[in-house]
Amino acid sequence: MAHKEELTDKEKTEKIKKYMVRTVEDYNWFRTLWQWLVTKFWYGLSYHFIYRLEVYGRENIPKTNDYIVVGNHLSTLDPPLVCHVLSNPVAYMAKKELFYHPFLKVMLDWLGTFAVDRDNVGLSTIKTAKSIRNTKKWVLGLFPQGTREKGNEIHNVTKGFVGLAKATKCNILPIGIIGTDKPTKIPFSGKIIVKIGPVIPLSDNTEEMFNKWIEAIQQLTGFKYIPQETNNTYSN
Questions:
Q1: Which pLDDT tens digit goes with each residue over 75-134?
Q2: Domain for residue 5, yes or no?
Q3: Does 4 fall in a domain?
């Protein structure tokens, strides 16, 4: 019996191409409603009755969608957590490999997430980011660390988010997340703290915006940023 041939990475990318480009029409009532149900209701029960969620700085959330939300990344709980806390629905970038899974890609699609090739970020990412901005309701969400991290340090921060902020003419909303790296299923045994900082205004000086975000995240989380060689790619 012949074995089924494995698809090459190029072939896999071709199959999920439609998940890499979004238009304004894609961010419709269905995705808005589905994200609300999943993050506000389903995950909300967990955040409040298992993790005793505390949120600070809600007054810093803009009333429009002229911002990109950028937070530190500790666990898979982080994306729905940010959606739960904010008033705007959030469209996340996610590495394309997540869309290779048949069930997961459907769930991510319904939640408004779009796929990104982190090794070859193209024009489609910019176009999608602009489409999100043009919805007048949704905002782009990013975790610029190279991977999820545990501990009290922040590493592997890529700078692509400031380029996207400039391309879409958006400010940056820093969000500090504490406690999601300690999973539990026992009611009221966990603790998650979310701190929302003041908006970092759009500037032509992207290096300045990046440094202000680093400073804000350190203040919000109490974690220490460990600088190292970074690049301009985007992260999930």
A1: 999 999 999 999 999 999 998 889 999 899 999 999 999 998 876 667 889 999 999 999
A2: no
A3: no
